Amino acid sequence: MQPSLPESPSQQRREAGRYQRTRSLCGTTCEANSRRAGLDSWPGRDGAAGDSTNAMGTHVVDSNTPEPDNWPSVSIVFLVYNRCDELRESLGRMLVGDYDPDLLDVIVVDNASTDDSSVMVAEEFPQVRLIVRKENVGVSGWNDGFAVATGEYVLTLDDDCYLDGDGLKRAIAGAEAEGADLVSFGITSSFDPDVRFNERYRTGLLSFWGCAVLIRRSVLERLNGFDPGIFVWAHELEFMLRFFDAGFRHLHLPEVVAVHMKDVSTHWTEYFASRAYRINSRHFAYISAKQLRPRDALGALVARLAVHARDAVRQDKAALKAVPHCLRGFVHGLRRRDPVRNAELSRVYRRNFESFASPWWVSRPLSELVRGAEGPGRRDQYFAERSRYYPNVASTLEF
């Protein structure tokens, strides 16, 4: 028997008013105490096509939230590796924002940079706390900043990313109003403001783009931050499986935009031969083996291998180089196996997170492929059928 978990902060806040509060969901008012574990019983919330499960607590919320009576303190934690100039701009923009500076605690973790990043911070931003690592440990370097953060919330930022305008205040106001434990954002490119990275690789309510995210410090303490087993990429997915399994609530605010200094000039077809493609393959397999239930983990592995075969045939045979990375990642995940307690959570991710999806769910029907028929696949249909997990308006999700 799995040990019972203590209530999360969001669970405690909801219990306090669960019999007095109602919510407006897409124009339908429903009593909060009608919720049952594992079942979304509100009108208009039918399961996605091909998905017999229902996530608990998918809400569309009003993004025009009132300001809190007392603004909470916030720690901003940057992780830098050899991006001195980008960090200078990101720090400068966050420090001149409209959030009360007396409530801000800014931390930079230097992940063993070989440029002048730490020197620049010490000389130009003396009010910032600087942690200099001797070894580059990847994204888990953020954990060093989390360990010394003092704010009630922690805004995690890449060295080349910042929240635009009043984004931080809007994110905090939303989190306070909705009792959210994590807030994710829309992500744009400083090179092309029309680009939305979160629409190119869709994470929705099931994950987030790791260059910018707001998390309650108590959540980071409860979950021990990011997994050191992932050096870079896909750590967000691993974190969110643990996050939802502990009963926390995610608020997605696509209208609050983080600016990412990421070039968009590379053509997408170059991805299949890239190092990033192979690393992502390893990490998706690692996460499925480590955290999904056995049937879902095996299904995700088969799906990943099938994706590589499809990409090799349709795009670039170099995609097959990802197969051994995928298998090694799966074995590594089995060695660190710690599956989610909530079986429904595992199933929802297997069926509704694209990186775990079987390719025949998003490709053209086999009969059309055999005939060589041209045209787009069913990717748009896949996301349309799962729109509650991939909303284009402010929404929350919890299990």
Could you walk me through the main structural features you see in this protein, from its secondary elements to its overall organization?
This protein has 399 residues and is an alpha/beta fold. The chain folds into two domains: 74-265, Spore Coat Polysaccharide Biosynthesis Protein SpsA, Chain A, CATH 3.90.550.10; 271-361. It has helices at 9-16, 84-95, 117-124, 142-148, 167-178, 197-200, 217-223, 235-245, 275-291, 294-314, 322-335, 343-352, 366-371, 379-385, and strands spanning 22-25, 28-31, 59-60, 74-80, 104-110, 129-132, 153-158, 161-163, 182-189, 212-216, 250-260, 395-397. Helix 2 runs parallel beside helix 3 (117-124), helix 8 packs parallel to helix 9 and helix 10 runs antiparallel to helix 11 (322-335). The radius of gyration is 21 Å and the shape is globular. Residues 1-6 and 15-54 have low confidence and may be disordered.
How widely separated are the two ends? 20 Å
Over all CA atoms, what is the radius of gyration? 21 Å
Number of helices: 14
Number of domains: 2
Using the 3D structure, state the CATH architecture of the largest domain: Alpha-Beta Complex
Low-confidence stretches: 1-6, 15-54
Mean pLDDT: 86
How many runs of DSSP E, i.e. beta strands?
Answer: 12
CATH class of the largest domain: Alpha Beta
CATH fold type of the largest domain: Spore Coat Polysaccharide Biosynthesis Protein SpsA, Chain A
